[in-house]
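Input (structure):
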């Protein structure tokens, strides 16, 4: 908090004491901001990667009264959890937030929790990276009378920038996604001291130490997906699991232009996690049918290249990708500009071999001056290995200058603000993310005995209904576990996994009733939350499309080929709500 003194009646000793108080106060602020960033990362490896929010509430005396972090999208905001932990000690306290609130557009739960608890000041590490959410919560808190200090804006110094950087690092996937429209991509490889990733024979197990391999499992757990090429799959037959004993499992992705892949492979085992194969259009149709029979998803591209693949997975909602491929695909990914960070494990071994593969293939560089330099390089000893990490691309600027509609119109009067007739929604952090089944809005629905049961989200209710009425203990146990799932992601994972492993336990009428199940859940959700109802009604005249490029039933598909039943149901509900509003208006007029 900046303190300003008039020089006249005050002595120099008073000014010095004020300056010391200011320095102490900043040090305390920055310590708690770093703490908020640290705890925001607690769900890493256990839930699907999502924006990381942490909140620390400290009393006026500097004691921590409560903490909280966002466990997954669709769960309680960090601010709400911190307020609940602090209780009455919130009165007059300061809330420290590593990032401005804003996980679900149109939902002001986090801001309301801080205001109603009596918080008088908030210190924010960074504004929200997504343009449609940036600044909204800061303005809302200030409008409610809270003092809000944003690092780098209201508080400036070298140590402030260091604390701000900690907040940036914990949300790099979201920042890169917002700036570059591709997921945050990390390249990982292990090599010998002489730069080989395998012997001349192709044998590669094991270059790095067990401790290094455990670090790789951690990296996998923090990622939405892991990518390998056809060569790696043929040579190593990898499993690409996180092996952390439960929780989030990243999707496995295989990139292959020719689909010259083995029929027997660990990646075709989908009992724990799904596999996606991306290939060039028309490649080995018979093998594509074989993969489909295994449940493996195949996505075709006109021309297969890393940039198009990453843009596709950006549209699919992925935040973070781990590349564990061979030199050829690595070189292509680097050349395409989609690799942002590198983790290189260097083992103190020498294997030699003129034909032994290296981690990066041909990049077309002929002079050392063309070499790519890493930024913010870190060195860490992991067991007997050395881990070298750094960025290939700088962290994007969070505050790009984007002209407003008024400014654009002043420059070019022919530009007319345009409201698109199609509104897309998908992830909870999208502009209309509250339409997602994963949004944090519990619903109450009647069970088979007409007793009302609370479900944490629409997704919880939908997944559990797959097994309703089945007397088998596995089905009953699955329903209970889904009901208690901590996040919509976990509920979805449980329901889909049980459906995949035990298709006989899915109720026989599921295909004919699932639309009605979803309709009833959505109607409840948009009936009991006024701000959601208002948001839905505000889209009148627009087509609503669930922007999933891979779910061709509930979503719109990659090229509009999907059935978009989720969007259809929301438009149906919107029409019904508008009709009820119109009927109510007519009744009022008649009464007058």
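Output (sequence):
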């Amino acid at each position: 908090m900046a303190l300003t003194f008039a020089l006249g009646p005050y002595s120099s000793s008073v000014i010095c004491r004020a300056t010391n108080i200011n320095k102490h106060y900043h040090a305390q602020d920055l310590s708690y901001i770093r703490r908020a960033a640290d705890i925001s990362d607690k769900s890493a490896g256990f839930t699907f990667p999502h924006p990381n929010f942490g909140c620390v509430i400290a009393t006026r005396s500097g004691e921590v009264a409560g903490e909280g972090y966002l466990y997954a999208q669709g769960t309680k905001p960090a601010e709400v959890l911190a307020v609940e932990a602090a209780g009455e000690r919130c009165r007059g306290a300061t809330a420290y937030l590593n990032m401005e609130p804003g996980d679900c557009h149109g939902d002001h739960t986090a801001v309301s929790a801080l205001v109603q608890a009596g918080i008088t000041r908030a210190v924010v590490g960074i504004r929200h990276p997504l343009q449609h959410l940036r600044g909204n919560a800061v303005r809302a808190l200030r409008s409610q009378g809270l003092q809000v200090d944003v690092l780098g804006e209201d508080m400036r110094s070298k140590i402030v920038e260091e604390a701000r950087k900690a907040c940036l690092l914990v949300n790099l996937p979201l920042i890169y996604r917002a700036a570059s429209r591709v997921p945050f991509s990390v390249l990982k490889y292990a090599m010998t001291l002489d730069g080989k990733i395998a012997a001349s024979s192709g044998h590669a197990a094991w270059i790095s130490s067990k401790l290094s391999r455990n670090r790789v499992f951690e990296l996998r757990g923090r990622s939405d997906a892991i990518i390998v090429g056809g060569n790696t799959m043929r040579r190593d037959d990898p499993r690409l699991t996180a092996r952390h004993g439960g929780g989030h499992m990243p999707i496995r992705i295989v990139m292959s232009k020719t689909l010259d892949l083995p029929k027997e492979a660990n990646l075709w085992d989908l009992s724990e996690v799904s596999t996606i194969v991306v290939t060039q259009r028309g490649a080995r149709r018979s093998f594509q049918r074989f993969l489909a029979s295994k449940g493996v998803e195949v996505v075709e591209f006109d021309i297969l290249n890393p940039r198009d693949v990453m843009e596709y997975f950006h549209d699919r909602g992925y935040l973070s990708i781990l590349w564990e491929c061979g030199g050829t695909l690595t070189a292509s990914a680097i050349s395409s500009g989609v690799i942002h960070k590198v983790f290189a494990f260097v083992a103190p071994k020498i294997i030699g071999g003129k034909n032994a593969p290296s981690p990066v293939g041909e990049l077309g560089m002929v002079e050392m001056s063309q070499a790519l330099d890493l930024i913010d390089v870190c060195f860490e000893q992991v067991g007997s290995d050395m881990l070298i990490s750094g960025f290939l691309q700088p962290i994007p600027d969070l505050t790009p200058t984007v002209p407003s509609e008024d400014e654009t119109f002043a420059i070019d009067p022919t530009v007319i603000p345009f409201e698109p007739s199609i509104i897309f929604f998908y992830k909870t952090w999208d502009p209309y993310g509250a339409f997602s089944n994963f949004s944090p809005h519990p619903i109450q629905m009647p069970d088979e005995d007409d007793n009302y049961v609370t479900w944490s989200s629409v997704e919880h209710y939908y997944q559990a209904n797959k097994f309703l009425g089945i007397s088998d203990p596995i089905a009953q146990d699955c329903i209970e576990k889904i009901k208690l799932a901590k996040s919509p992601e976990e509920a979805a994972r449980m329901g889909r996994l049980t459906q995949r492993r035990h298709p006989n336990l899915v109720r026989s009428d599921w295909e004919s009733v699932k639309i009605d199940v979803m309709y009833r859940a959505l109607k409840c959700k948009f009936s009991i939350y006024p701000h959601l109802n208002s948001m839905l009604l505000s889209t009148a005249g627009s087509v609503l499309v669930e922007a999933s490029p891979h779910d061709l039933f509930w979503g719109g598909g990659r090229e509009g080929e999907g059935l978009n039943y989720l969007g259809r149901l929301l438009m149906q509900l919107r029409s019904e709500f508008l009709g009820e509003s119109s009927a109510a208006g007519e009744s009022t007029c008649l009464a007058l």
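Notes: The chain has three domains: 12-170, 175-391, 422-588. DSSP finds 18 helices and 18 strands in the chain.
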